[in-house]
Amino acid sequence: MIARSRHRKLNEVKKIPRVSAKDLQKSLEHANISVDESMIRKTLNKNGVHGRAPRKNPLLSKKPIAARLKFAKVHLNVLQRYWQNILWSDETTVELFGRNTQHYVWRTNRHSTPTSKPHPNCKVWSS
């Protein structure tokens, strides 16, 4: 891989960590450089950038929790007939056979573990 294209890919990965190796290959083809996807991955790995699963955020943050609590307090004394006229919908999507939408991001190696505590659902710190 040409040094110029290597630096170009590293800069692109730093700007957009969710870009895939296939997208990087297409952008190199626009610059008339023919490189295989595996070569792109190997080059990024040699330069300390690896594909990792992104960190999961909690389902509810403080703002939606406060909004739900406010809604509950406002509608605390509403009659049962009022709720019978409301159509409730559940917008949750359930995938029966594993995750169909696995995403990866490009991350550099961390030399030390973060000082803050991990998310309660996080079992192990990944570098």
TrEMBL record:
Transmembrane segments: none annotated. Pfam families: HTH_Tnp_Tc3_2. GO terms for molecular function: DNA binding. Residues 11-77 form the Transposase Tc1-like domain. It comes from the Eukaryota. InterPro entries: RNaseH_sf (IPR036397), Transposase_Tc1-like (IPR002492). One of its GO terms (biological process) is DNA integration. This is Transposase Tc1-like domain-containing protein.
